[in-house]
Amino acid sequence: MPSALSPAVVFDPERGLHIRQVSRRPAGPGEVEIEVRAAGVCHSDLHIVSGDWPSDRPLVLGHEAAGVVTGTGPGVTSVRPGDHVVLSWFAPCRRCRRCAAGQAWLCTGTKAVANTLPDGTTPFTDAEGEEVWPYLGLGAFTDRLVVPESAAVRVPRELPFGVGALLGCSVTTGVGAVVNTAGVRPGESAVVIGTGGVGLSVVMGLRLVGADPIVAVDLSPERLAVAERFGATHTLDGARDDVAAWCRRELGGVDYAFEAIGSPKVVETLPGMLASGGAAVLVGMAATDATGSFNLFDLADQGKRILGCNYGSSVGEIDIPKLARLHLAGRLPLDELIGVTRPLSEAAAALDDLRSNTGVRTILEP
Ligand SMILES: NC(=O)c1ccc[n+]([C@@H]2O[C@H](COP(=O)([O-])OP(=O)(O)OC[C@H]3O[C@@H](n4cnc5c(N)ncnc54)[C@H](O)[C@@H]3O)[C@@H](O)[C@H]2O)c1
Ligand SMILES: [Zn+2]
Ligand SMILES: [Zn+2]
């Protein structure tokens, strides 16, 4: 039996952003039914609304969420009804070569990026019987979901749902960029450009591993003040300061330059910030057709590296519980990343919060 109708935040190429009533079908084999308790609003939702990542079909937005398991389909063994879970938006297939090699973030068999469940279907139908598709295989801006088992990661019950939501995307991506993608060591230097939910998580990850100095760059003084609280030792204004010249003059170049915006213009400036042997880490996601150019002689001559970073090079079932434990042990102040909490009906305002680059992460509650 499909569930009763309930409101979902939908983006449709024709109608734009709106609230639509949807029902969801029960969990099939290998699937899990979830009641969403909190969902963060990430720039990757805004990329859909702004058209950076075009979609040809209606999508239930939302991919950074936590909730409770309410039912399981045949064959599910890792979670039970009542378990608290963080939803991972890059549900790995667990069968491809990358998955077999322990690199789930590079899975080539996942259907999440095609905005479907693993069997190519959607759990959502609207009142007219039209199918509505789950963004990144989740569609978490509604109250009830069906997700693949590999997307539902069990976490301790004492973890607050808002913090759990952030573990679904920004924190796992940002901290993972530091510890997994880059492998930053104590005393190495780093600059982080763009200190939204993802960039602030990079800053927190850098403090966790003992990086120093940690230079944060943003256009918003409010965001930079938060970055200082999270461990930035220096802050620069991205509109006013020449960050590459500053890094070379003051630090002789940095070991790591993290970009957490998705701006081709900013990415092109990263190699100029690096010391020889340093690495630029591309965490921000640009438009799907974006290109950039670098001085190739400088890259080769100075042994500089460019590292792509999908989902913080994380394996959800390993890294999400690890980060949850670090938070509960007082080592990662993830609650301080949470700004305003709004009801789902205020999703449009929540996306405006994100566009205005103020405050910290907005959480939606169904
Ligand atoms: N790699 C991944 O797997 C992954 C996961 C999640 C999000 N992302 C991407 O990361 C990016 C950031 O996401 P977010 O949710 O933190 O976004 P956000 O909008 O909260 O933060 C972006 C920040 O960049 C700042 N900024 C914009 N232009 C700037 C400039 N020229 N110089 C300095 N600062 C500038 C803004 O003021 C803002 O604070 C997005 O592109 C998102 O799609 C990537
Ligand atoms: Zn995200
Ligand atoms: Zn795979």
Write up this protein.
This is Alcohol dehydrogenase. Its cofactor is Zn(2+). Belongs to the zinc-containing alcohol dehydrogenase family. The chain is α/β, with parallel strands linked by helices and 366 residues long. It has two domains: 6-154 and 333-365, Quinone Oxidoreductase, Chain A, domain 1; 174-310, NAD(P)-binding Rossmann-like Domain (Rossmann fold). Helix content is 26%, strand content 27%. The protein is built from eleven helices and 18 strands. Strands 3, 5, 6, 9, 10, 17 and 18 form a seven-stranded mixed beta sheet that branches. It has a six-stranded parallel beta sheet with strand order 13-12-11-14-15-16, with helices on both faces. Helix 11 links the parallel strand 17 and strand 18. It binds nicotinamide-adenine-dinucleotide and zinc ion (ZN) (2 copies).
**Shape annotation:** globular
- Compute the number of structural domains: 2
Ions, cofactors and other ligands present here are:
nicotinamide-adenine-dinucleotide, zinc ion
Specify the CATH class of the largest domain: Alpha Beta
How big is the Rg?
20 Å
Keywords: Metal-binding, Oxidoreductase, Zinc
Cofactor: Zn(2+)
InterPro entries: ADH-like_C, ADH-like_N, ADH_Zn_CS, ER, GroES-like_sf, NAD(P)-bd_dom_sf
Family: Belongs to the zinc-containing alcohol dehydrogenase family.
